[in-house]
Amino acid sequence: MINILPEIISNIRMGNYRYIGSGSARNVFDLENGYVVKIAKNQAGIAQNRTEYQISFYDNSDLFARVIQVSDDFIFLIMEKAKKINNFSYICRYFNIRNNRELANLSKLQNIQKKYNLLWSDLFRSSSWGILDGKPVIIDYGYTKAVSERYYFAF
Question: Which of 24, 60, 74, 143 is deepest in the core (most CB within 10 A)?
């Protein structure tokens, strides 16, 4: 794979990519080519990028937007760009469910939630989902139980 990260980093510094949004640990920019770049702002963001990379690498379900490249230090992560979901009802219609409880009972979701220690609270948020090829996919899956405990609820 060709390393396009130096070009992306340069374009971000010059303001050539549209800012999509951010969370407490990462900023997201649209690369305008069907992909986004997630940039870690802190150690929690690096951990989330690392987690998304690992899940994407090992998972064979069709429930996640795929990571295509990551920097060696996990500060930069490039992922497929999914269309934004504005309303959770799209996910409910797609899976033929009525509410979060029914979503949690779907075996496909239970399997990935257990396998990767994903937090149900994130899986129930429409901002964690997007649409690729007409199907809902999880686009924000780096905030696992382990990341939460290490970076957000440390005492």
Answer: 143
Cα radius of gyration (the chain): 15
Q: Looking at domain 5-149, which CATH architecture does it have?
A: 2-Layer Sandwich (3.30)
Hey, what amino acid is at 22?
S
* Alpha-carbon distances of 26 from 13, 50, 75, 109, rounded to whole Å: 16, 12, 9, 25
SS3 state at 30: strand
Which pair of structure tokens corresponds to residue 145? 């139980």
Q: Three-state SS for 101? A: helix
Instruction: Read off the pTM.
Output: 0.92
Nearest by Cα to 37 from 28, 49, 24: 28
Going from N- to C-terminal start, the domains of the chain cover 5-149
Average pLDDT, the chain: 92
